[in-house]
Amino acid sequence: MPGPSHDPDRDARPTLEAVAARAGVSRATVSRVVNGGAGVRKPLVDQVRKAVEELGYVPNHAARTLVTRRNGAVAVIIDEPEFRIFSDPFFSQQIRGISRELILHDSQLVLLLVEGSGDFDRVARYLAGGHVDGVLAFSLHTDDELPAIIRRFRVPTVYGGRPGRPGAASELAVPYVDCDNRGGAAEAVRHLVALGRRRIAHIAGPRDQTSALDRIDGYRDVLPDGDPSLLVDGDFTVEGGARATAELLDRHPGLDAVFAANDLMASGALRVLRERGRRVPDDVALVGFDDMVSIAEATDPPLTTVRQDVEGMGRLMVRMLMSRLDGEAGGDEQASVITPTELVRRASA
After folding, report:
1. Nearest 5°: phi and psi at 121?
2. How many CB atoms neighbour CB 252 within 10 A?
3. 339 strand-pairing partners
4. Which has more confidence, 53 or 296?
5. How far apart are CA 48 and CA 54, in angstroms?
6. pLDDT band at 283 (very low <50, low <70, confident <90, very high)
7. 59: which of 34, 91, 191, 295 fits an S-S bond (Cβ 3.0–4.6 Å)?
8. Exposed e or buried b per residue across 205-242, where buried means at least 16 C-beta atoms within 10 angstroms of its C-beta
9. d(CA 222, CA 225)
10. What DSSP letter does each residue of 186-217 carry, written as one string?
């Protein structure tokens, strides 16, 4: 019994010639359209794209790179240990925003994590190899080597968060996207003051990051004469918030409000307050920062916090980078963007 007939054309990968024949244009025209070249009239572009879709043609990446001088990839560099990246919802939201926007630009996300100082050499070698079109770098610390590496290899870059090293942003001539950390912190503390709280503590983030410093400044803007011992350093983790809260209660058993510099630390603070017999918000009002809904709506009571649009900021970073890569007017001298924050009132304060 004869086997099923086999049509070699059915299994063959569509070629440029096949697309050109279907569209009724030259092979060169098809090449310019699918590889991103310019100089093709819109009606012909539409014909070619229709033929590409009908045939299921997939452009050759190497050829496309030669035409566009693009790799179709962007490096996202995060200077944090792996456990923080995968345990803090802030990073997943920002990466999600970046990924969704990159898809719209037909570009791939390449995630590079910096666990320690030894990883900077690895990142430098990767950037030197020309594997990516640009860089999105965030969660920088004041002792970061990344700005110098980026400057050395002249990689188009947008920062997430204000770079911490003095002069880093101006020297690199790159924009950054950040939220109004100082204003948001001030609004949180003003809210606590309006509730009649008088012994308001602050659990700060790491002081080698500008977001933490800006939130400290916002706290001090409202309480310039506050007791300095009511300010305790944390590390943006649940355990860091718990340790800081225990220290605060040992120093000030009568404190009546806590502003934590992120929601993870606020959740750690809530745990210790409950363990020490403090009712929230009756005895101690509590406010966080970020509005990570997976945390803020899951705590008991739900957390009052300062919202920043983390996913939207990630998308904005990509749009700014693509503007630079596309050479749009002013793309190389874009102003940095500070996005607004909003106090979200729930039951904890």
Report:
1. -65, -40
2. 15
3. 179
4. 296
5. 10
6. very high
7. 34
8. bbeebbbbbbbbebbbebbeebeeebbbbbbbbbebbb
9. 9
10. HHHHHHHHHTT--SEEEEE--TTSHHHHHHHH
Residue 6's pLDDT is what?
43
Per the CB < 8 A criterion, the answer to whether 149 and 336 are in contact is no
Helix spans in the chain (H)? 8-11, 16-23, 27-34, 42-55, 61-68, 82-85, 89-104, 119-128, 146-153, 168-172, 181-194, 210-222, 238-251, 263-275, 293-296, 310-325
The DSSP symbol for 229 reads G
DSSP reduced 3-state for 320: helix
Rounded to whole angstroms, how far apart are CA atoms 206 and 200? Answer: 19
Per the structure block, which two tokens stand in for 112? 């590079």
**Residue 34: closest CA among 19, 18, 13, 54:** 19
One-letter amino acid for residue 6 of the chain:
H
Residues paired with residue 157 on neighbouring β-strands, in sequence order:
135
Tokens of 232: 């305790």
Nearest to 161 by CA among 119, 205, 191: 205
Q: Are 248 and 226 in contact (CB under 8 A)?
A: no
Which positions ≥6 away from 97 have C-beta within 8 Å? 310, 311, 312, 313, 314, 315, 318
Place of tokens 């980026």: 150
Is residue 272 a contact partner of residue 245, using CB atoms and an 8 Å limit? yes
Is this prediction's pTM over 0.85?
A: no
What average pLDDT does the chain have? 86
Buried b (16+ CB within 10 A) or exposed e, 322-344: bbbbeeeeebeebeeeeeebebb
Please enumerate, as own/partner, the contacts of 162-169 that have beta carbons within 8 Å and a separation of 24 or more.
162/210, 162/211, 162/214, 162/336, 163/210, 164/140, 164/208, 164/209, 164/210, 169/336
d(CA 128, CA 126) in angstroms, rounded, equals 5
Does residue 64 carry a pLDDT above 80? no
Instruction: Kindly state the percentage of the chain with pLDDT values over 70.
Output: 86
